């Protein structure tokens, strides 16, 4: 409209509603965005089909907790399954990397440093192999594959439609967040992940496409995946003063522990086995998980069942403590062997287990809070601090469980404290710490040594 309101004030004085910037939200861009959302949803559904099919073939899994299917399998079968997964995965990744030298599949690096290009075939091959080994029980997150394919789809569609480099970058970020949103049924969490982690912007020109792409992708996956929460039957816990007091104490502790956890992931990623050495390394790390799994089958897979158990308060403090100590180690071992996979759910499970363990102990000091409530607070704090994305961490826990709204205040308190401490101590996230080595990412001076200056939300 040509005329202003009678006040005479400008229409775009609201700071998040200014112009589109470099990435014009044109009709061609919106068409590309819808296509990217559909592609992210379809790839997400296809990859989850491959994951579930592998789980069925290896462990006879059909429905319910994956952990139960693992427990029904013999100890020997678990070890053999993971050793075979190490051989197949190691050889497949070795062959893929040999066939695609120099081709890129690092979504975060591509978005944060515009100019590079994602390799569609490298992303596709890595994604398929990743879901197969996770289906066999490898301790890795399943979100990296759909995130990768959503971003690669955006890259390819942007090229087809002749979009600008700024539009392409926005589309790649939207596709990556949409892939995560689709497989976990978390459209809001996926949108916040795109804005907070990948783009570092919550301005309207970023919000509109990210929300739209995550909605389209999530709705598309409903052709195969269920529309309910990933963690079902989570009770609606009640707020209690003891939860607030505990959140004040545990928030800074989670911040410190998340810093060590992030450093561990960054170290093993940098020193991971490469070339032909990755095959025996993968066989060894996966086989070790199989042996540990004789006692703790909850460690198999991405950690969803371990988190679910503690969310509903099923288990003991000693079991939670053991799983909290072991889950990061077996995940780090898998990454160090050269395997490629996500770390979102392993991180969430680690935070939930820590929360359940410390909350169970705190209940002896100040009764009144449920173990599951402590676990949800711990999960949100660990995710927020490890991602350096507190809003995304909170939204993801709420959407994954469809519960926890009454715990919002202690969850926010613990998440803010954990993220602030983690940022002050170090500043890396589970994504920036795993970026490939590069002279452009050299550590800065002593003013804030170690902080990843390239990440857009810093």
Structure summary:
With 458 residues, the chain is an all-alpha fold. The chain has helices at residues 27-59, 66-72, 75-99, 107-112, 120-135, 144-160, 165-184, 187-199, 204-221, 241-270, 278-292, 304-311, 317-336, 344-365, 371-387, 390-401, 408-425. The longest helix has 33 residues, at 27-59.
Distance between the termini: 37 Å
Shape: globular
- What is the alpha-carbon Rg in Å? 22 Å
Sheet-strand content, in percent, reads under 5%
Largest sheet properties: none
**Runs with pLDDT <50, length 5+?**
439-454
- Strand-pairing-aware structural class: mainly alpha
Spell out the helices and strands N to C: HHHHHHHHHHHHHHHHH
State the share of residues found in helices, binned by percent.
55-70%
What does this structure look like?
- This protein is mainly alpha-helical and 458 residues long.
- Helices cover 65% and strands 0% of the residues.
- It is built from 17 helices and no strands.
- α10 packs antiparallel against α14 and α11 (278-292) packs antiparallel against α13.
Chart the SSEs and their pairings:
Elements: H1 27-59, H2 66-72, H3 75-99, H4 107-112, H5 120-135, H6 144-160, H7 165-184, H8 187-199, H9 204-221, H10 241-270, H11 278-292, H12 304-311, H13 317-336, H14 344-365, H15 371-387, H16 390-401, H17 408-425
Which short descriptors sum up this protein?
0% strand, globular, single chain, 458 residues, mainly alpha
């Amino acid at each position: 409209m040509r005329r202003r309101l009678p006040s005479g004030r400008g229409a775009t004085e609201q700071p998040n509603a200014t112009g589109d910037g470099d990435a014009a939200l044109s009709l061609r861009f919106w068409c590309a965005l819808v296509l990217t959302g559909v592609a992210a949803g379809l790839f997400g559904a296809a990859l989850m089909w491959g994951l579930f099919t592998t789980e069925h073939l290896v462990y006879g899994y059909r429905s319910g907790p994956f952990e139960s299917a693992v427990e029904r399998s013999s100890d020997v079968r678990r070890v053999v399954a993971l050793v075979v997964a190490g051989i197949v995965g190691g050889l497949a990744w070795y062959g893929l990397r040999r066939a695609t030298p120099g081709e890129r599949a690092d979504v975060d690096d591509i978005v944060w440093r515009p100019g590079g290009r994602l390799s569609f075939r490298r992303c596709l091959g890595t994604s398929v192999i990743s879901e197969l080994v996770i289906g066999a029980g490898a301790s890795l997150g399943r979100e990296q594959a759909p995130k990768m394919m959503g971003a690669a789809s955006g890259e390819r569609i942007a090229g087809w439609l002749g979009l600008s480099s700024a539009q392409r970058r926005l589309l790649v970020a939207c596709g990556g967040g949409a892939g995560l949103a689709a497989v976990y049924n978390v459209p809001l969490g996926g949108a916040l992940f795109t804005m907070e982690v990948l783009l570092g912007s919550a301005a309207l020109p970023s919000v509109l496409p990210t929300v739209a792409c995550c909605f389209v992708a999530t709705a598309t996956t409903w052709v195969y995946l269920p529309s309910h929460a990933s963690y079902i039957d989570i009770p609606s816990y009640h707020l209690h003063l003891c939860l607030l007091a505990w959140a004040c104490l545990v928030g800074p502790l989670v911040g410190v522990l998340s810093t060590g956890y992030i450093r561990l992931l960054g170290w093993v990623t940098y020193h991971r086995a490469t070339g032909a050495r990755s095959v025996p390394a993968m066989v060894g790390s996966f086989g070790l998980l199989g042996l540990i799994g004789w006692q703790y089958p909850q460690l198999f897979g991405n950690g969803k069942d371990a988190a679910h158990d503690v969310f509903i308060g099923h288990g003991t403090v000693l079991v939670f403590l053991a799983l909290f100590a072991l889950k990061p180690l077996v995940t780090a071992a898998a990454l160090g062997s050269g395997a490629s996979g996500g770390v979102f759910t392993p991180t969430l499970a680690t935070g939930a287990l820590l929360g359940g363990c410390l909350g169970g102990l705190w209940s002896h000091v100040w009764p009144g809070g449920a173990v599951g409530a402590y676990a949800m607070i711990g999960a949100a704090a660990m995710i927020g601090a490890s991602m350096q994305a507190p809003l995304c961490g909170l939204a993801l826990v709420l959407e994954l469980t469809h519960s926890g709204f009454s715990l919002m205040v202690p969850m926010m308190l613990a998440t803010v404290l954990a993220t602030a401490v983690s940022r002050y101590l170090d500043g890396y996230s589970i994504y920036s710490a795993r970026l490939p080595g590069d002279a452009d990412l050299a550590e800065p001076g002593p003013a804030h040594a170690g902080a990843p200056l390239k990440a857009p939300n810093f």
